[in-house]
Amino acid sequence: MIRSSIDLGTNTCLLLIAETDSARALRIVSDHSTVVRLGQGVDDRRELHPEAIARTLACLADYAAKVSQAGARPEETVCVATSQARDARNGGEFFARVEKETGFRFRVLSGDEEARMTFLGGLLPGMDPESSAVIDIGGGSTEIIGSRGGQSVDLGCVRFTERYLKSDPVTDSEFWDCQEAIDALLEPLRAWRDAQPREPRLVAVAGTATTLAAWHLGLPRFDAARIDGLTLSRGDVHRMVEELKWRDHDERCALPGVEKGRADVLLAGAMILWRAMELLSFPECRVSTRGLRFGALL
User: Which residues touch 22 (CB under 8 Å, ≥6 apart)?
Assistant: First the structure.
């Protein structure tokens, strides 16, 4: 049976179309990612911006056509939305318009629900859930979860770029203020880390991690087969943070694997990953191109 799911985040909108069997195994038919920046200005105004709404509606209209062409129905697509929808006053009005125009019916997830679905969907085949922890750095929030539960923190690459990293390239004071704020929000997660039953291996999902992996590999274009399972050390991530810090937007866009819609928020995302690995004592992470959209479908 052909089924589909959509993960609408603060920065990207992802569509998964897959074939499922009675055992709920997934065979990917197609997998799509579009930078829509729905969370543009939400951290400041608590409202979805008209330009962001227009970009997202255009993306979802295209996705509805793709779902129908694959033999599935937009009305039956599992659609979930995350941080920006929790924060925006006009989120309900927006999603009513989405359903009317595309047929997609969205469910806004709580932070805990987002963390559970991300853990379920983020692990690659062969990974042991009991010895894994998943980190999902989104545009508005970051989820980290292991076999004994997890946490969702209002810490995202779009949110913290808009709050702290306003210069191009960033200034030293902006960088250190951002790092201090990241550390303050991650500090309470030490108790979560200590409660894990084994020494877990960290799995990093979502656009920050996959972009850093593509850059690390020097990929001219996205290649999930090469990115999935790649190991980045804490030192690798720190070195990329330091390089992004002194590069301006155009220089970041010229890096292999870095798309224009992510270049401006990549430093904040990389800082979150680096500081999480540092403060929670993860020497390395494995990268997965899977995540919430897989968990929602499962």
Answer: none
Beta-carbon contacts of residue 70 (< 8 Å; ≥ 6 apart): 2, 4, 17, 29, 30
Spell out the domain ranges in the chain.
2-108, 124-297
Dihedral sign of CA atoms 84, 89, 90, 96 in order: positive
pLDDT tens, per residue, the chain with 298 residues: 899 999 998 888 999 999 887 656 678 899 998 988 888 877 777 888 889 999 999 999 999 999 999 999 999 999 998 766 667 788 888 999 999 999 999 998 887 788 888 888 888 888 888 889 999 998 888 989 988 788 888 899 988 998 999 999 999 999 999 999 999 999 999 988 888 877 889 999 988 999 999 999 999 888 989 999 999 999 999 999 999 999 999 999 999 999 888 899 999 999 999 999 999 999 999 999 998 899 888 8
DSSP state of 263: H
The model's pTM = 0.85
Instruction: Tell which CATH architecture fits domain 124-297.
Output: 2-Layer Sandwich (3.30)
Q: How far is CA 11 from the centre of its chain?
A: 8
- Kindly state the DSSP code that residue 259 receives in the 8-state scheme: -
Architecture in CATH of 2-108: 2-Layer Sandwich (3.30)
24 φ, ψ (degrees, to nearest 5): 70, 20
Length of the chain as a residue count: 298
- Cβ partners under 8 Å of residue 60, min gap 6: 6, 13, 98, 101, 102, 104
